[in-house]
Amino acid sequence: MSFLYVxxxxxxxxxxxxAFMPSSHWTIRSLDFPRVQIAVLCLASLGLTVLNPPAxxxxxxxxxxxxxxxxxxxxxxxFPYTRLAKTEVLSNHAPDDDRTVSLLxxxxxxxxxxxxxxxxxxxxxKPDLLLTLESDAxxxxxxxxxEEDYPYRVAIPLDNxxxxxxxxxxxxxxxxxLYRVEEDIPSIRSQVILRSGEKSGFTACIPRRPxxxxxxxxxxxxxxxxx
Length: 227
What we know:
By secondary structure, the protein is of the alpha+beta class. Helices cover 33% and strands 22% of the residues. It contains six helices and eight strands. The chain has helices spanning 3-18, 26-29, 35-51, 58-78, 115-125, 137-142, and strands spanning 103-107, 129-133, 152-156, 164-168, 172-182, 185-193, 199-205, 225-226. It has a five-stranded mixed sheet, with helices on one face. The chain is elongated, with a radius of gyration of 24 Å. This is Endonuclease/exonuclease/phosphatase domain-containing protein.
């Protein structure tokens, strides 16, 4: 039994097992995402065993069983996102009306300076609400050209990768900037007044990154302001 074969058996089973650890570190939590890739590796290891059966041993039987269990578990997790699963949210094909709201959300990535690409998307789709995440003072200035079309705004420019800006064509009411995740991680809670006159609740938040050290709270000049 070659080392490569053992490695092919160990990797997908180990990746599946590690994801069960109650750790928030990114090295562990990142294993929650490549489920399709892990399932393919499980299938590959099982297929390789069928095509070229190794000598039976306790280790091989254990690893094959672990891969089979890992495959079943990964398929169970993947299934809800396939066409075979029951639709949970029905599509709405009704025409836009006074009770319809469009939203464009963009994680701009603070060091990114391609504001022109985001502005082009906004000009193309003309959303009622635009929410930017990781936006700092630079991004606030770069998107100033949108202010004429979006007279209602909430600005929280931070340089700790948790900045947030909300731009709205529709009036906002009872707007609050909250810090309930961490003292340096904001959330926005507001009511959007629809064209019909009805009010719709709106909440925007960004979770803390896994195992990220706490950033020193920034007290910026334009923090916590609603325009």
